[in-house]
Amino acid sequence: MMVRIKYFAVLLIILALAFSQAVGFARKAERVDDERIAWLTGTLIAHRGMFSEEENIPENTLPAFARAIEHGFIIELDVAMTKDKEIVVFHDKKLSRLLGIDAYLADMDYEELRELKITGSEERIPLFSEVLNFVDGRVPLLIEIKNEGKVGEMESLVYDQLKEYKGKYAVQSFNPFTLAWFRKNAPEVLRGQLSGSFLVSDHEVESAGTTRLPWPLRFLLSNLLLNFASRPNFIAYEINNTEIKTLQNLKKLGVPLLGWTVRERAEYERVKDICDNFITEIYDL
């Protein structure tokens, strides 16, 4: 009897070690030279530019980016693809929240979009090429690629516009296979894995079209178990709905850890000694 118990105990230990190694391999990140990535932690990152609802400066627009440039902050922005394969700077899948239209961006041609003004302003959805020309390397860019569909076409179109860009930039995505495309086809581009709790409210689903993921996929993504595909150079992780211990464990991956999104100082204070930098909407930090 004792022999069987010892055998079973040894087997459990072996299985536990094998599981631990498998998880470690799956979550592993890819470090790069400090000189290549130091800029990513050098100054705060303005979430969708320095937008202001009070001043009618919408997110992801040229005036919001102009304010970030004026203050010397890194600009975080979102890119998406229209029905006619144009790359635009816009966050939501749906147009309801910002344009008051019950339609999906992916179902619209850019000629249709350019006629629409963002609610409460004179601003329109800009082309990615317009934003690149406007920023022109004056501050670095952190570019989130919004692709929940087939990987390849959109990533290629984004990269085609970045090839000749002279400023500093990095790409990031919640989709590890988007990053895997860059890993294979553009390994010189810094890539970051976005992740978090993936908790989505009914309001976000209705107004922005945010996808509510099935729990198995949410589990894999929130625990970075698909890093074996993306092998990110940095991690950008949600600071709300996340325990301190989770963030501390992410630091062990050995790459920069960005916290998103700071909207109140208390959120920053809770994790300021863990994260290397912050994607933020407040700047007196």
Cα end-to-end separation: 63 Å
Q: Please identify the structural class as seen in this structure.
A: alpha/beta
CATH topology: TIM Barrel
> What is the correct CATH architecture?
Alpha-Beta Barrel
Q: Report the order of strands and helices.
A: HHEHEEHHHEHEHEHHHEHEHE
- Please tell me what the overall shape is: globular
Please give the count of helices.
13
Biggest sheet, strands in spatial order?
1-2-4-5-6-7-8-9
Which residue ranges are poorly predicted, with pLDDT under 50 across at least 5 consecutive positions?
A: none
For this structure, what is the CATH class? Alpha Beta
Mean pLDDT: 93
Beta-strand share of residues: 15-25%
Instruction: Please count the beta strands (DSSP E, at least 2 residues each).
Output: 9
CATH superfamily: Phosphatidylinositol (PI) phosphodiesterase
Cα-based radius of gyration, to the nearest Å: 20 Å
Question: How would you explain this protein's 3D organization?
Answer:
The structure is a single chain. The protein is of the alpha/beta class and 285 residues long. It has a single domain (2-280), classed as Phosphatidylinositol (PI) phosphodiesterase (TIM Barrel). It is built from 13 helices and nine strands. It has helices spanning 2-27, 34-37, 62-71, 96-99, 110-113, 128-135, 153-162, 176-185, 202-208, 215-222, 227-230, 244-251, 265-271, and strands spanning 45-47, 74-81, 87-89, 141-145, 169-173, 190-195, 234-238, 257-262, 277-280. Strand 5 (169-173), helix 8 and strand 6 form a beta-alpha-beta unit. The longest helix is centred in the N-terminal third of the chain and has 26 residues, at 2-27.
